[in-house]
Amino acid sequence: MKLSSFLRFAAFGIKTILFKKKAPILGTVIVTDKCNLHCLHCAVNNITGTVHPYEHIRREMQQLYDMGVRILFFCGGETFLWNDGERTLRDLVIEAKGMGFLIVNVVTNGTFPIDLPEADLILLSLDGDRQRHNAIRGDTYDAIMDNICNATSDNICFYMAINQINKDCVRDVCLIARDAKNVRAVSFNFHTPYPGTKELSLTRDEKAKCCEAITQMMKEGAPVFNLKSAFPYLIENNFPTPCHQCVVIENGKLSICGRCIDVSGLCDQCGYFFVAEYTLLFRGNLKVIFEMLRTYLKYI
After folding, report:
1. Element (H, E) at 255
2. Which of 73, 235, 244, 277 could cysteine-pair with 28, CB 3.0–4.6 Å?
3. Which CATH number among 1.10.10.10, 3.60.110.10, 3.40.50.720, 3.80.30.10 corresponds to the domain 24-36+48-299?
């Protein structure tokens, strides 16, 4: 991370904590909900099949930038399905950088060739070993691993949602992240029970066991892009929600924190690690602040 970016984020954090500001710093643009997969835990794919045009997305990017957002995510559906004529996802990332966003990340299921060195991080969904991943996402594991090996940059970060199917695969994914070419780290979430997926949720004791496994892998040197200091809050599900410093925009609709904000009661069952980490950070939790500084400077 550039020193100028670090100082900008530090100043934002200090003002937010001291003055209890609710301005956003992280924003996500949904470029399409079209997806080539039908994953068991997903409730937001292929609802409309709309691929939003370039100028529409650019206006949404500008809207987020004008609000103060400086960390931008492109998300789907599957982001690599996005195009507008000859324009591809690379054009969106380059446009975002030129617009002034300091960090630009992309979320993908990894089933398409990964040639996007302009992105700061490519968050790639890997949901366990071959057996468990394929049980959740279909027969995609081998193709994804080939795409990772052939990627043109080492900016990949695994993105694993832990659920009842893959809860025993934390160690497997950490070891793959440690040893695989082009992979920088792994970031975990617990399954958030969108309608129709409640059976995949973890119990409190299962969450605790997973956090123990993640902590052990951290001790063994695995590159984990999460904050151990937030684990107790995630286990007990007692971190503050929603996160006002994060926003999502989809087809002109702006949501605080995420799309789950519209589902009654779902915030109380949130499994997103970054929500716990950011809300605790901006409440002034000192352990989270110092750990986030070390982690972000290491992996971004």
Report:
1. strand 253-256
2. 73
3. 3.80.30.10
